[in-house]
Amino acid sequence: MTPVIEVGDLSFAYESGSPILENVDFTIEEGQSGCIVGPNGGGKSTLLKLLLGLLQPDAGRIRLFGAPPRDSRRLVGYMPQYHQLDAAFPVTALEVALMGCIKPGFFPFYSRRDKETALAALEELGIADLASRSFADLSGGQRQRVLIARALACHPRLLLLDEPTANIDPGAEEQFYATLAVLRKRMTVLTVSHDLGFVNRETDVIICVNRKVSVHRAENFTAETADAVYHHEMNFIKHDHACFCKCGGSCHE
Predict the structure, then answer these.
(1) CB under 8 Å to 68, separation ≥6 — which residues?
(2) Which of 41, 73, 189, 253 is the most exposed place for a label (fewest CB within 10 A)?
(3) Is position 138 within any domain?
(4) Across all residues in the chain, what is the average pLDDT?
(5) Which 3 state secondary structure label does DSSP give 150?
């Protein structure tokens, strides 16, 4: 079976700079989900842009469903960090979700079916009642779910989420984890996070990025592994609230 993501011997550097990523190799198979973790400046965002086809590698190759990223975009849903968007832009939640239905062309045109698809995505995420609300008036957690709905509107087989729990309150975060568990049953989900607390039981593969890349099964990811990635001692808590720091398990929450 063709892997969902296949990265081989990839290297990348911005102009006149030192390498951001070197000799990157990893594979995500159908049915797996992963999390990209690493320190700020380690290359996580660059790797995500390469997977989206927004940047081209200096060496090596990337394949999504067996094809280059630009040829696979219709199979990929992407959720950016909401603070990267202009929240004051006058659009409703439904209009944001509809952006996931945009097809190639100069002028966007939304059919009745597109609107039904966008509404169905909002409904799946439990926010259909927000369809006519201004995006600017929504809470952080609500905006995150609207952006996920936008990503789902293209019926993706691969969902890429950039810092999905950033700047949302604990209640919204728990709701997000529940949503993610449902989505993983029908598509591959790859998240990007600097927060080791995001590592949880339902993630299959942990992709550690700090110029070099190492890949670990989630159940084998320990505090010692994190130390090697971040280059200093880290304490982190998996989503099941079991502590994996060096306390020996005495600081369970």
Answers:
(1) 53, 62
(2) 253
(3) yes
(4) 83
(5) helix
Q: pLDDT (tens digit, 9 = 90+) per residue, 84-109? A: 666 677 899 999 999 998 776 555 67
In order, the DSSP letters of 176-238 are HHHHHHHHTTTSEEEEEES-GGG--TT--EEEEEESEEEEEEGGG--HHHHHHHHSS----B-
Domain coverage including residue 195: 5-230
- Tell me how many domains the chain contains: 1
Kindly state whether residue 117 falls inside one of the protein's structural domains.
yes
- Tell me how far apart the alpha carbons of residues 219 and 202 are, in angstroms, rounded to a whole number: 10
- What are the CA-CA distances from residue 141 to residues 42, 172, 179, 226, 236 (Å)? 27, 5, 12, 28, 23
Q: Does residue 64 lie within any of the structural domains?
A: yes
CATH of the domain at 183: 3.40.50.300
> Does residue 210 form part of some domain?
yes
The pLDDT tens digits of the residues spanning 185-223 come to: 999 999 998 766 666 556 889 999 999 998 888 888 777
Q: What angle in degrees, to the nearest 10, is found between the helix axes of 140-152 and 170-183? A: 20
Pairing type for strands 34-37 and 205-210 reads parallel
Q: Tell me what the mean pLDDT of segment 120-126 comes to.
A: 92
Residue 97 or residue 110, greater confidence: 97
